[in-house]
Specification:
By secondary structure, the chain is α+β, with helices and mostly antiparallel strands. It contains eleven helices and ten strands.
């Protein structure tokens, strides 16, 4: 649930945002939804950011740069949360039609081909000073005219290009809008033991659900639901051989929603419960 939200918009699109929200979600798609790149600084709380092939954890006073693509925010709390756990962040969005207009030179990526999709950004003094200035604008939006907004976006791009050691800001800007390429099977295998729905896995693969199921069958000759369940159960049998490893930990590591669902699926497939299998 969003507790507070402020935004500075340009051409009816958010450019800078400040948001405070409760960590009462399990997983939600990135809240930037077009072909924009995003810079985000966390002023409080923590969350996980799931890319198609990786999961990164961000905590207070850490910053992230995400290229255009499909990602998810995930809650990291496993306890009851308090107001001190609320997630607070300041973000900036880069739109191709806006930032490419900043530079007279034609943009090229031939010199800078950084392979990242999402990275942690070093919050050096210059970056921290910039974030403070954006925070001030968000709290005093009457002074945020068109020139100030555009200059602030350009300033952030210059700072980021230096922090990422780009050969030039032109190359860096162009690289933001070249989606990172993923191998279909790599995305599936990297998320197979996550507690994730078929629909969300399809999104990470940049596919509609119908296309995803067709491609999955082409690669694995099986439906996604059946294949993934079998792989989870296969891993569970391996973990059950580890002495003193709790059943709850095994269920979590194999990507089951809870212990009852794990017990039910395991017994249906093997004819005995995980506890009985472990004793045998």
């Amino acid at each position: 649930m969003i507790l507070d939200h402020k935004a500075i918009r340009f051409n009816n699109k958010p450019v800078f945002e400040k948001m405070v929200m409760k960590p009462n979600f399990k997983r939600m798609p990135k809240h930037f939804a077009e072909n924009e790149a995003c810079f985000l600084f966390l002023t409080n709380g923590s969350f996980q950011f799931r890319t198609p092939t990786n999961v990164l954890t961000y905590s207070k006073n850490e910053a992230m740069l995400a290229k255009c693509g499909n990602y998810f925010f995930e809650n990291v709390l496993v306890k009851e949360y308090t107001d001190d756990d609320n997630i607070a962040l300041i973000s900036a969005y880069f739109y191709p039609e806006m930032v490419k207009g900043f530079f007279e030179k034609d943009l090229s990526i031939k010199h800078f081909q950084n392979k990242f999709d999402v990275i942690k950004v070093n919050v050096e003094p210059l970056m921290k000073s910039f974030i403070d200035s954006v925070d001030f604008l968000l709290e005093n939006q009457s002074i945020a005219d068109e020139n100030i907004i555009l200059n602030k976006v350009k300033e952030l791009l210059l700072i980021l290009s230096k922090s990422e050691n780009a050969s030039s800001v032109y190359d860096f800007v162009e690289s933001l809008f070249v989606p990172h390429e993923y191998n279909f099977k790599e995305v599936v295998q990297q998320n197979i033991f996550a507690e994730i729905s078929i629909e969300d896995l399809a999104r990470l693969c940049n596919c509609g659900i119908t296309t995803f199921k067709r491609k999955f069958n082409e690669h694995y000759n099986e439906t996604p639901a059946k294949y993934i369940l079998l792989k989870k159960l296969e891993k569970a049998t391996q973990l059950l051989h580890i002495k003193n490893k709790p059943i709850a930990d095994i269920a979590y590591e194999c990507g089951f929603e809870n212990i009852p669902s794990f017990n039910k699926a395991f017994k249906k497939h093997f004819g005995k419960s995980p506890s009985e299998y472990k004793l045998d």
